Amino acid sequence: MKREGILSLLPLAIFLVIYLVTSLIIGDFYKIPVAVAFLISCIVAVIMTKGSLKERITHFSHGASDSNIMLMVWIFILAGAFAASAKAMGSIEATVNLTLNLLPGNMILAGLFIAACFISLALGTSVGTIVALVPVAIGIATEIGMDSAYITAIVAGGAFFGDNLSFISDTTIAATQTQGCAMRDKFKVNSMIVMPVAIILLIFYIIQGSNLNITTQHNEVEWIKIIPYILVIVTSLCGINVLTVLVIGIITSMIIGISTGAINIFDFIGAMGDGIAGMGELITVTLLAGGMLELIRINGGMEYITSKLTGNVKSKRGAELSIAALVSLTNLCTANNTIAIITSGKIAKDISEKFNLDPKKVASILDTFSCFVQGIIPYGAQVLMAAGLSQLSPIEIIKYLYYPYAIGFMALLAIMFRYPKRYS
């Protein structure tokens, strides 16, 4: 049932042309809905796949209903319900007031970046960090009159910091397990590559913030309404499942909202419904992407990429570059950095052993380049979640995602200049 060759990647190419290239040409990313671009690509993928129509649809459905895809759908549903209900009962407004009171105007951008880095490092999940902080960031953007896409990108960029480095991140676990190295050792190598980037960006945001002329009237902080966000962050830090965390946030928002008279039960339920409905396109895109990428895999797309990248490797530098390209292209096709690492991990291990590469450096390459690609594709879960919560186009956010771009560039330099020396 496999069709070798570049044709197997045609559906992905069609999506990129329809959505990305066309939108760039006409200069409007709202003209072509991303769900429609994916639908067309999915139809092409179904047509290309061998077998009866029933068999093709079955394969597509298996991809769309993959356990990882369905977990993301549940997270999107609960995240939408929590974000909208918390906003309706005044939690976001209260958190914004607290932030504006605690941080001087010239430290707001840097403060959001630090918060996103710290929370994502503690949680080990970029999606959970985005769910917790983006609504607050949007509220701050509205309050101080800044570009919402820019502030959303600051939070999303910081979220990738922890996704890449955290000991409990699924990408860290996948990278270290496939390469057979300890997490602390991978952390040492990884931090040498990405920490300078984070420090430089922090300085940049401090400078950017110093140019802001923010004159806002700080309102009184309603501390009780901040509790839902505090609970979401604290329970996440305790290692509780993200779905449970979001349910706790919703229930807490309801209790506080109704008890304080900020909202009644019917308005609260209505806000939850609006939040879930607002995630409709995001859920549709996730399901369509899962199905399309499964058909690409069945048609031999992943095998084709692998064979082309590893055919002419002759040096350690070339071996590391091929691993970086392999996980990047796999991530481009799967739109999931953990799956990309797992998919390319065994091949990377074989290349590593053949060229006597340091497993710690290879694990760092896998994790860093997967996070780089995940942060710059408009159909990745993190960007889609940030776009859904902020009601923006993914492309509007991506152009400000400096951190993923920077770690990708830094990781490439680390390969080219054999850095860090002791691991190269």
Outline of the structure:
The protein is mostly helical and 424 residues long. The chain contains 21 helices and no strands.
Structure, explained:
This protein has helices at 10-26, 34-48, 53-64, 67-88, 91-102, 108-123, 126-144, 148-165, 170-179, 183-210, 227-237, 242-259, 265-278, 280-298, 301-310, 316-334, 337-354, 359-374, 381-390, 394-398, 402-416. By secondary structure, the chain is mainly α. α4 (67-88) packs parallel to α19, α6 (108-123) runs parallel beside α8 and α9 runs parallel beside α17 (337-354).
Specify the number of helices: 21
Poorly predicted parts: none
Largest sheet, strands/sense/barrel? none
Radius of gyration: 22 Å
Task: Describe the protein's topology.
Layout: H1 10-26, H2 34-48, H3 53-64, H4 67-88, H5 91-102, H6 108-123, H7 126-144, H8 148-165, H9 170-179, H10 183-210, H11 227-237, H12 242-259, H13 265-278, H14 280-298, H15 301-310, H16 316-334, H17 337-354, H18 359-374, H19 381-390, H20 394-398, H21 402-416
Helix pairs in contact: 1-2, 2-14, 3-14, 4-12, 4-13, 4-14, 4-19, 5-7, 6-7, 6-8, 6-10, 7-8, 7-19, 8-10, 8-18, 8-19, 9-17, 9-18, 10-18, 10-21, 11-12, 15-16, 16-17, 16-18, 17-18, 18-21
What are its keywords?
single chain; 424 residues; 76% helix; globular
